[in-house]
Amino acid sequence: MTIEQLYEVYWEHPVICTDTRKISKSCLFFALKGDHFNGNEFASLAIENGAAYAIIDEATYAVNDHFILVIDVLETLQDLARHHRRQLSIPVIGITGSNGKTTTKELIRSVLSQQFKTFATEGNLNNHIGVPLSILSIDDECEIAIIEMGANHQKEIEFLCGIAQPGQGLITNVGKAHLEGFGGIEGVRIGKGELYEFLKSSNGVAFINTNDEVLTEMAREKGLKNLIGYGEGNENFISAKLKNSSPFLSVEWHKKDGTIQIADSKLPGIYNFDNICAAICIGSFFKLSPEKINAGINAYEPVN
Question: pLDDT tens digits, residue range 40-55?
Answer without folding.
Answer: 999 999 999 999 999 9
